[in-house]
Design a protein that fits this description.
The complex is a heterodimer of chains A (about 280) and B (about 140). Chain A is α/β, with parallel strands linked by helices and about 280 residues long. Helices cover about 60% and strands about 15% of the residues of chain A. Chain A has one domain: 3-Layer(aba) Sandwich (Pyruvate Kinase, Chain: A, domain 1), CATH 3.40.1380.10. The relative contact order of chain B is 0.17. The chains are: A alpha/beta (about 280), B alpha+beta (about 140). Chains A and B meet through helix 1, strand 6 and helix 6 of A and strand 1 and strand 5 of B.
Chain lengths: ~280, ~140
């Protein structure tokens, strides 16, 4: 009986923790969703503008569009700072593993879990300045973008991808990837003859100035999506943990009451039989 | 006067989505103005004042606009700046603080790249102050 009581107490403790984490996730999530609502039009428009542009402008005298043999890929892997979010981090790592299988890869991790994961597996880490997803802001994304664009132009890698988690809904989050560099003309254009576009002062100058901004915008979008996904995943995981704890507590209470009842019955029987014997 | 569709979207949200008669801003190559029927056009945005002329005869709306791209297509005009602030939303105290910070960074630069960055920040801060003063002076 004492044992059951102890277990009830310990599980109630756990339940309090999971409940608190759920509430924290909910309150942060509403902010993160607001942020997504603000940023979504920006990067969807940006991406479609980029597609238009790369389709329309040719030939491109800038280093960002040339076809290279892909020897090395750089991946920006955005995961969470903490665990206890169901399969959120693991799904992303699995996706990264599947997407980069057999390739030579360097990683720029965002999120503490991401850094730990890739460090442990011996990946080449480009920078560990951006470990906390929660604290990454627009300015950091511009810094990341400047760094990576420079590295790309210096031929340190031939392809840049961002792997993040898409916030589909409160209940569904999917890992996804977006290829940022090089700009792939065939991928972007829909086969129609591109319309003439005047580019001033010149494609080279304009692209070299625009591309880092666009990359930064898209990375920032991916960060916002991922962060909201992490919170939603944590909320769901913690909700089910809390309800699980409730079930176990109910079960244990029942057992405890049964044990208590039978011990009382036994005591009464003993007293009665003792009284009869006199 | 003819109107065109204008959309201004920055990482901070949508600033303008509707019709306009004219859009003036500074590209990396100098000032440009876009009116309805403009040829498809692409340029990178510099650091400068942006004016949106929405209705016939009314004063243009002023804004500080830095970085990003301007894309003119047949469907409309798309402006995606890095930072965009309507003149009335500019926090002058913050801009002044940013200016001081940039100045001190330029005096004691940590590296060449840091100095360049600080110079850009200084130009942005000065632009914001200038634009905020423009509307308060009216």
């Amino acid at each position: 009986m004492k044992e059951i009581n102890l277990r009830i107490k310990s599980i109630s403790g756990t339940r309090q923790i999971t409940k608190a984490m759920e509430l924290v996730a909910v309150s942060k999530l509403s902010k993160a969703r607001e942020r997504i609502d603000r940023i979504r039009p920006f990067y969807t428009e940006l991406y479609s503008a980029l597609s238009d542009i790369s389709a329309a402008v040719s030939p491109l005298d800038t280093g960002f569009c040339d076809k290279r043999e892909i020897k090395k890929t750089c991946v920006i892997a955005i995961a969470g700072d903490r665990g206890l979010a169901g399969g959120y981090n693991n799904n992303l790592f699995k996706y990264v593993a599947a997407s980069t299988e057999g390739k030579s890869v360097s990683v720029l991790p965002i999120g503490k879990r991401s850094l730990e994961h890739f460090e442990r597996r011996g990946y080449e880490i480009i920078s560990d300045d951006f470990v906390s997803v929660e604290d990454v802001d627009v300015g950091d994304c511009y810094e990341i973008s400047r760094l990576l664009c420079r590295m790309y132009l210096d031929d340190e890698f031939d392809e840049l991808k961002v792997i993040y988690t898409n916030f589909v809904s409160m209940l569904g989050q999917e890992p996804a990837e977006l290829r940022l560099l090089p700009l792939d003309k065939e991928l972007l254009s829909d086969g129609t003859e591109p319309a003439f576009t005047l580019v001033e002062p010149g494609t080279g100058a304009v692209f070299n100035s625009i591309i880092p901004d666009v990359v930064a915008g898209l990375v920032w979008g991916a960060v916002c999506e991922s962060f909201a996904s992490e919170l939603a995943a944590r909320r769901t995981a913690m909700e089910s943990a809390t309800s699980n704890a409730d079930d176990i507590i109910d079960d244990l209470r029942l057992k405890y009451n049964k044990a208590r009842k039978s011990s009382i019955t036994q005591q009464i029987t003993e007293i009665v039989s003792g009284a009869q014997a006199e | 006067m003819a109107e065109f569709n204008l959309k201004i979207v920055s990482p901070d949200g949508i600033f303008y989505d509707g019709t306009a008669r004219q859009l003036s801003l500074r590209s990396i190559d100098g000032d440009v103005a876009v009116m309805a029927g403009h040829i498809p056009y692409l340029t990178a945005v510099g650091i400068g004042e942006c004016r949106v002329y929405a209705e016939e005869g009314s004063e243009p709306r002023l804004a500080a606009c830095c970085g990003g791209l301007l894309n003119v297509t047949k469907e409309g005009v798309f402006l995606a700046p890095t930072t965009f602030e309507w003149a009335e939303d500019i926090d002058r105290e913050r801009a002044k603080a940013a200016k001081e910070k940039a100045l001190s960074r330029i005096e004691n630069p940590k590296s060449d790249a840091a100095k360049q960055l600080a110079e850009i920040k200084l130009r942005r801060a000065e632009l914001r102050i200038a634009i905020a003063e423009k509307i308060s002076g009216k």
